[in-house]
Backbone:
């Protein structure tokens, strides 16, 4: 599996870094004037595909002031985007729950740093980031719980510092097991090691899970459905942008709402997968479609809800946020510097106003799993 020229340096992957001094604040101009935005997004992370739609359909063009430009930059993991935003090289980011939470701790009152805030939700699910894969010759399991218990004493892996890492560590504790090794590997290395027979199991996100499954590289074995474990994605922004240009935040969230509604419309499923294919490398259209719309048997972690589009930090998203932050704070590396994010770290008021103005409520709806027979190229 190749991902072009995307950097994978180790420094970009760790989330347990101390707050770093911010560079001089970016001048985003006066309200109403054109703006130049740099957006970090993850076409290789299905739950954040409203960013793929924003890039592909360019909904932002009719929302931002005339003359504005947007550069979309790919991050193979959310941590890469968070690091770019910490240096104010990116201004908005589409990330998973763990990097999204960790981003809010890049600013600490006593030490300063870069103030990054959560302005909206990309969705919640139990089978987007939380997917266990096992080697092809592993036993046939009756349930996902049985599959995870089999991993006791085995060689496992996930990209540490990601949403999969939180799920893996939490699930190992719930199942009362301890793998022989729990390796820190990116999705490309995990794919290579499954092919080489060097991994017993791994936790990975979509669409890589569907790619491994459909190409016969590894078998799906369990998901958050088996452990009632939510995963989620966040839209984050520099507070410099929020404070200087609330008009830009509102415009972007208007366009983001357009994108999430586009994702929810089942008639757009094939087109969404096509856009994702254009923005990724060497992933078949059918795999991409399956990652967001395809169903899986219950005994391997399948469930009805492929993704719930929440848009704002509603009660469901808030519980995920609180639970995940507490878990991060419990780790030795302390990716979260406190058991809860600071109150101002969630800045979704404008998103709520946008929803209300359109007479909509959260959640917007759910993307239901469909049988493979529903697939259309």
Residues:
């Amino acid at each position: 599996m190749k991902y072009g020229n995307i950097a994978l340096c180790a420094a970009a992957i760790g989330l347990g870094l101390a707050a770093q001094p911010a560079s001089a604040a970016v001048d985003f101009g006066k309200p109403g004037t054109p703006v130049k935005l740099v957006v970090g997004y993850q076409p290789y992370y299905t739950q954040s595909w409203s960013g793929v739609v924003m890039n592909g359909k360019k909904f932002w063009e009719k929302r931002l002031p005339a003359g504005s430009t947007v550069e979309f930059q790919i991050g193979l993991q959310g941590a890469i985007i968070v690091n770019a935003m910490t240096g104010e090289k990116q201004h908005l980011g589409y990330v998973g729950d763990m990097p999204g939470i960790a981003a809010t701790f890049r600013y600490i009152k006593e030490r300063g740093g870069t103030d990054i805030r959560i302005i909206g939700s990309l969705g919640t699910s139990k089978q987007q980031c939380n997917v266990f894969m096992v080697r092809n010759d592993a036993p046939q399991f009756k349930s996902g719980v049985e599959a995870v218990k089999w991993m006791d004493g085995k060689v496992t892996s996930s990209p540490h510092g990601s949403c999969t890492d939180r799920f893996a560590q939490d699930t190992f504790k719930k199942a009362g097991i301890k793998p022989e090794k729990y390796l820190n590997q990116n999705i490309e290395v995990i794919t290579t090691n499954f092919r080489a027979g060097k991994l017993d199991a791994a936790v990975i996100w979509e669409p890589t899970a569907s790619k491994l499954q459909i190409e016969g590289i590894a078998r799906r074995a369990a998901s958050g459905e088996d452990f009632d474990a939510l995963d989620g994605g966040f839209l984050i922004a520099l507070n410099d942008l929020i404070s200087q240009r609330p008009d830009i935040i509102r415009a972007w969230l208007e366009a983001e709402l357009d994108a999430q509604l586009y994702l929810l419309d089942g008639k757009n499923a094939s087109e969404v997968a096509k856009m994702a294919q254009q923005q990724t490398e060497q992933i078949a259209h059918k795999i991409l479609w399956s990652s967001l719309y395809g169903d899986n048997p219950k005994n391997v972690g399948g469930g009805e809800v492929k993704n719930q589009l929440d848009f704002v930090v509603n009660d469901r998203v808030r519980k995920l946020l609180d639970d995940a932050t507490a878990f991060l704070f419990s780790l030795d590396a302390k990716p979260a510097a406190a058991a809860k994010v600071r109150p101002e770290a969630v800045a979704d008021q404008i998103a709520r106003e946008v929803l209300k103005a359109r007479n909509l409520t959260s959640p917007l709806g759910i993307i239901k799993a469909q049988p493979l027979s529903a697939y259309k190229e």
Summary: Residues 131-226 form a domain with the D-Maltodextrin-Binding Protein; domain 2 fold (CATH 3.40.190.10). The longest strand covers residues 116-125. The chain has two domains: 10-124+230-374, 131-226.
